[in-house]
From TrEMBL:
Keyword Lyase: no
Amidase domain span: 54-530
Species, as recorded: Schizophyllum amplum
Protein name per Swiss-Prot or TrEMBL: Amidase signature enzyme
Top-level lineage group: Eukaryota
Length: 562
């Protein structure tokens, strides 16, 4: 892949000497793919410094370097066999002055629970061998929207199997994709369940990515991978064509390296879709999510800190509680930055927040109850599934029948699937609890917002605090890094599997672990939250304060493929 360096330098010298760099770009005309923004990538495409075909080739080479060798990050399950054709088509349109907007010709990866049309030659497995070689009906609505905006689907990203609704297994693992790792520490926890989407975006294996978020699955890996992540209000982005957990809480949202890029992605994927009637209740017209991005967006804004309960998403399941102490100075510093930007920071404890926690024991199965019939409806919609699996019972049986694929040591748990088994669509008793809890969560957050007269809440990511239960939005933005003397600690399963039995160790926390700051508020406040995150981002530029570890940074750049 790498061209001989001397030939490269010679061609640059020639190009400069003859002033031909419009055709033959110099190194510094080419964006660093580790960090390139959409605007930077578009600039080079428009100038003709490189094409979308070049971009796809470069990203493919970068994936090859780190995905299953070297740092072995297992972020990508499959690359697209039609991405180069799609790129050539995008190049042709651009040449004829018909570029379709800020995403035109840019390659994105999508979590492997997004349906991609059969003709594109990729699986949609949610990480399970029970869904290998299925024939889905069509692209997910969001994929269709990306394509209509000129974007290229580069490949499918690894994930916690079934978006973490399998059981208590380490995040980022799926049978099909293997164990995804963080690029910030060898064998570091990548966060989940949109693990591969986040890792790919963090080190420039794509321009950005889409994930899904039911109870933190976009925000949590975004925080762990030093990214911007948006969990939209339920009903802003269609879930049609996604492998579901629950229509009550599933959302689809972007991972990006900058707030502006995330806003561009949200602009494209948000909107009403008749195939997901929850989207028909959204306000019209939607704002342009890039329009309000301003360095001054925090002036005079009151932000509430729900001090009383700041804790990890999934804390109970992980056996943890609260944030690491070493995060305190990072969070306090972030609050000082917010104040310096004109925000007023107030205590805004959310009363009754205990009733809002997601993973409290009695409720986990209730919230998972949708999973059985909605997953079965997904199975029903497949034109073909060679495994023959059509029900949750059969899925669980499939795993027991293929333990070598589906149940390697430390990855045996199917507790969430099993908890969903007793439910059916007909038995709607759980729905009353779900809607009552959701209504209650919404009331509490609205009331607290009014009581303290705040525009939004701010806290360290990932945090739970009932936002998922309320179907409300969150935006996370890079905030800082745990100290370098943080002890790398083997994570999870210590309760059920002695460390000597680990098939592989996953560390969490670890030295230099990235940590995000979350802005959260009530329904349809995405534009506001993005603008606050933007002001913070522009004042701090946290992302590049620490790069991934050397082996996890792909070396291929655009000049290697030109
Ligand atoms: C799906 O994945 C299987 C197993 O990795 C592979 O053999 C098959 O070619 C893939 N199917 C498509 C359509 O890419
Ligand atoms: C990559 O990691 C997986 C575990 O996820 C392991 O089985 C495999 O051997 C590793 N491969 C390399 C090349 O290190
Ligand atoms: C969506 O449609 C289903 C039936 O197809 C109906 O039960 C449900 O109430 C509708 N939801 C909304 C938000 O309109
Ligand atoms: C919020 O909760 C924290 C922690 O329990 C407490 O220290 C603080 O006094 C509370 N603030 C208000 C305004 O109630
Ligand atoms: C099904 O509904 C019945 C009556 O409404 C209830 O007693 C039972 O616990 C429900 N089953 C589950 C698994 O919730
Ligand atoms: C609804 O939730 C509230 C708060 O958790 C609870 O007090 C009330 O009993 C619930 N109502 C029903 C009908 O379940
Ligand atoms: C609420 O806060 C805003 C500033 O964000 C201020 O202008 C307004 O007067 C406050 N309202 C009350 C009732 O305190
Ligand atoms: C741990 O490994 C030992 C053998 O080294 C085995 O006997 C035991 O069953 C394993 N335990 C678990 C929980 O996997
Ligand atoms: C693109 C890529 O590297 N895909 C790999 C994902 O992981 C599976 C399982 O290890 C490999 O078979 C794929 O080649």
């Amino acid at each position: 892949m790498l061209f001989p360096t001397c030939a490269l330098i010679a061609s640059i010298l020639v190009a400069s000497a003859f002033g031909e760099f419009l055709q033959t770009p110099r190194h510094h005309d080419l964006p660093d793919l580790y960090e390139a923004t959409f605007a930077e990538l578009q600039h080079g495409l428009d100038k003709g410094h490189y094409t979308s075909v070049d971009l796809v080739k470069a990203y493919f080479a970068r994936i090859e370097e780190v995905n299953k060798q070297g740092a072995n990050l297992s972020a990508i399950i499959q690359t697209s066999p039609v991405a180069l054709d799609a790129a050539a088509h995008a190049d042709k349109l651009r040449k004829h002055g018909k570029a379709l907007g800020p995403l035109h010709g840019l390659p994105f990866v999508v979590k492997d629970n997004y349906d991609t049309q059969y003709e594109d030659g990729m699986n949609t497995t949610a990480g399970s061998y029970a869904l290998i070689n299925t024939h889905v009906q069509r692209d997910a609505y969001t994929i269709e929207k990306l394509k209509k905006a000129g974007a290229i689907i580069l490949g499918k990203a690894n994930l916690s199997q079934f978006a973490a609704w399998r059981g208590i297994v380490p995040n980022g693992w799926s049978a099909v994709g293997g164990q995804c790792y963080s690029p910030y520490y060898p064998q570091g926890m990548p966060g989940g369940s949109s693990s591969g989407s986040a890792v790919a975006t963090a080190i420039g294996l794509s321009a950005g990515a889409l994930g899904t978020d039911t109870a933190g699955s976009v925000v949590y890996p975004a925080s762990y991978n030093n990214l911007v992540g948006v969990r939209p209000t339920v009903g802003l982005v269609s879930r049609a064509g996604l492998v579901p957990i629950t229509e009550h809480y599933d959302t689809a949202g972007p991972h990006a390296r900058t707030v502006t890029d995330a806003a561009h992605l949200l602009n494209v994927i948000a909107g009403p879709d008749r195939w997901d009637n929850w989207t028909l209740a959204q306000p019209e017209p939607l704002p342009d999510y890039t329009a309000g991005l301003s360095k001054h967006a925090l002036r005079g804004v009151r932000l509430g800190v729900p001090w009383e309960k700041i804790g990890y998403s999934g804390a109970a399941a992980a056996g943890g509680n609260g944030l690491p102490e070493s995060l305190n100075p990072i969070f306090y510093n972030a609050l000082e930055v917010l104040k310096s930007l004109g925000a007023e920071i107030v205590d805004a404890n959310i009363t009754d927040i205990d009733s809002l926690l997601w993973f409290d024991d009695g409720r986990a199965s209730t919230y998972g109850a949708d999973f059985k019939w909605q997953l079965e409806a997904y199975f029903e919609g497949l034109l073909d599934n060679p495994s023959g699996v059509r029900s949750l019972e059969q899925l669980i049986a499939f795993n027991y029948d293929h333990p070598e694929l589906e149940m390697p040591p430390t990855y045996e748990s199917m507790s969430r699937m099993e908890a969903a088994l007793p439910y059916s669509r007909a038995n709607a008793s759980y729905l009353a609890i779900v809607s009552n809890d959701t209504f209650t969560a919404q009331q509490i957050i609205h009331d607290t917002k009014a009581k303290y007269n705040v525009s939004a809440f701010v806290f360290p990511s990932p945090q739970n605090a009932g936002w998922y239960k309320a179907m409300f939005p969150q935006v996370t933005v890079p905030m800082g890094f745990l100290p370098d003397d943080t002890v790398a600690t083997p994570y999870l399963n210590t309760a059920t599997v002695p460390p000597s039995n680990y098939s592989n160790i996953i560390y969490d926390p670890y030295p230099g672990k990235p940590h995000g700051l979350t802005f959260a508020s009530t329904e349809w406040t995405e534009a506001q939250l993005l603008s606050y995150a933007y002001a913070f981002e522009q004042a701090t530029h946290v992302r590049l304060q620490k790069r991934a570890y050397a082996e996890a940074v792909p070396k291929t750049q655009l000049y290697d493929v030109l």
